[in-house]
Amino acid sequence: MTLQKALVVGFALACAYGCAEQSVRVDLGAGAVFADCVDCPEMVVIPPGSFVMGHDGGVNEERYEGPPHEVTIDYSFAFGLLEITTAQFRRFVNETGYTAGTDCRMWTGETVEPVAGKDWRDPGYGRPPRDEDPVACVSWYDAKAYAAWLAAQTGQAYRLPTEAEWEYVAHDGGSTAWSWGDDPDAGCEEANYYDQAAAGQRPWDPVACNDGHRMVAPVGSLEPNAFGVFDVIGNVWEWVEDCYVVPYGVQPVDGSAHLVDGPCEKRGVRGGAWHSRATWQRPTFRGRDTEDFVTQVFGIRVVRDLP
Q1: CATH number of the domain enclosing 106
Q2: 154 part of a folded domain
């Protein structure tokens, strides 16, 4: 444990949630890891920077990932070191009585369909989810509710990442097609995606490498990216704040979310999952679904604003 992390966690041990009205006065430089309470998600500080967001291409016209545009994030922010776990989400539900989405969609052998009674407590793994598994079968509404609860409990500005922040972290300072390089078969040290360990579960070709996990993996099982973030690619998809539009239109170029007046038809979701084919694992690939969509491979990662 770093000194900075120990200071923050020590503060939390001393007052738990009772100090929400106070501020934790610890200087956190880029790469520092901290947690605002004993059971809060660990966060890593991401430095400011610029990158080219998007890609002039995609798997089809509907999935166009461009046009590319430069984004400058001139602020540091804290990004979840790990995806939110089943245990962390359970604490939220137990303390609030929140009712999360149900009838989770999952692969039934030929297609993806809602399955009655399946939810985050039973995401269809053939076993109970482990405490350290990323929570799955959660909607955008569920993700927003968890982040809002965390913010209220800690007195800190927790929220969902914007699409630009997420892609900036996923690129981790590089410009290659995948976060680990340009070879789609070389990501198994960093990403739990559709590989030799998972082969045969879906009707598309697995990559040549083997990450050792047939399905979902406990968070942090593989190597982090250059920003020190685990599982940003693969494991479960992660909801973002933005209202989805394709192609990119008049987008914010400062890291903020693309929002609309009135109802949002679909929200962005990023990062692919343990059963996703390699083309869906690029940092520029953009998932999108309705706010109430619940599926076996959608989860949560949070961001925290820094002073």
Answers
A1: 3.90.1580.10
A2: yes
Amino acid at 157: A
In a domain, 36, yes or no: no
Q: At what angle do helices 140-154 and 86-96 cross, to 10 degrees?
A: 70
Which residue is it, tokens 């969609």?
105
Q: Which two tokens stand for residue 157?
A: 């500005």
Q: Side chain identity at 170, as an amino acid letter?
A: A
Cα(46)–Cα(74) distance, integer angstroms: 11
pLDDT band at residue 249, thresholds of 50, 70 and 90?
confident
Decide: 159 and 305 in contact? Cβ < 8 Å. yes
Q: Using one digit for the tens of pLDDT, what is the confidence trace for 21-30?
A: 333 445 689 9
**Bridge partner list, 181:** 178
Q: Categorize the per-residue pLDDT at 276 as very low, low, confident or very high, splitting at 50, 70 and 90.
A: very high
Q: What confidence tens digit (pLDDT) does each residue in 209-232 have?
A: 999 999 999 999 999 999 999 999
State which amino acid sits at residue 176: T
> Which domain covers residue 116, as residue numbers?
84-307
Number of other residues whose CB lies within 10 A of the CB of residue 278? 23
Q: From start to end of 103-256, where are the E strands? A: 105-107, 112-114, 158-159, 237-243
* Number of domains forming the structure of the chain: 1
Rounded Cα gap, residues 293 and 228, in angstroms: 30
CA nearest neighbour of 298 among 21, 88, 84: 84
CA 307 – CA 141 distance, rounded (Å): 26
